[in-house]
Amino acid sequence: MNSNNIKEILLTELQIKNKVRELGKEISQDYQGKDLVLVGILKGAICFFSDLMREMQIPVNVDFMAVSSYGNASQTSGAVRILKDLDISVEGRHVLIVEDIVDTGLTLTYLKHNLRARKPSSIKVVALLDKPDRRLVDEKPDYLGFTIPDEFVVGYGIDYAEQYRSLPYVAVLAPAVYQHK
Ligand code: IMP
Ligand code: MG
Predict the structure, then answer these.
(1) Which of 51, 100, 103, 130 is catalytic?
(2) How many whole angstroms separate alpha carbon 95 and alpha carbon 27?
(3) Parallel, antiparallel, or unpaired for β 122-130 and 143-147?
(4) Which of 73, 68, 127, 72 is nearest to 103 (CA)?
(5) Contact 135/165 with Cβ under 8 angstroms?
(6) Residue having the nearest C-alpha atom to atom 3 of ligand 1
(7) Gap between the Cα atoms of 93 and 35, Å rounded
(8) Residue range 21-54, pLDDT digits in tens
(9) Which ligand is nearest the CA of 152, by number?
(10) Which domains does the chain show, CATH number per domain?
(11) Sign of the C-alpha dihedral computed for residues 160, 154, 140 and 55 taken in this order
């Protein structure tokens, strides 16, 4: 990886770690005594998901969904498609969707609508990052790590064209990287 492709580090490993610990504590308190299923949205949420589940102080079940959103472009198509569905049933259980970023909000609208049909007791969302400037629909995560400006970010699971996911921090990608494609 060429480090010149990174414009700046937005969130350090320590900032993320502290925030994820806080979220784990708060969510554990709210779901005490409840049958909770953490639904991670692949692949962007992998780091956030695996850190958050280890900060949970109550028993949880985990499962994953994969949906298409960006492909290889930095703009959303608006079309959402399920690439991998849940393995377990969420009927009568409490679902917490674990997302990397809420951007336009279209993915969340689709996911909530889709999961609601499976009759869970509740559906809420925890997102690591929120870019409210780009919202097209009225969606808001119930639990949030950080609000960030309208810039394209990578790292901590989040990619550009399947690259940069393994960076341990969240960084702003230099615009030249995607403008010359
Ligand atoms: P939405 O449907 O526009 O809210 O898109 C949300 C999804 O788009 C996120 O889960 C990410 O996978 C992707 N996304 C949004 N912003 C960024 C970004 O800055 N970098 C990488 N992926 C992003
Ligand atoms: Mg995603």
Answers:
(1) 103
(2) 12
(3) parallel
(4) 127
(5) no
(6) 104
(7) 6
(8) 999 999 999 999 999 999 999 999 999 999 999 9
(9) 1
(10) 13-150 (3.40.50.2020)
(11) positive
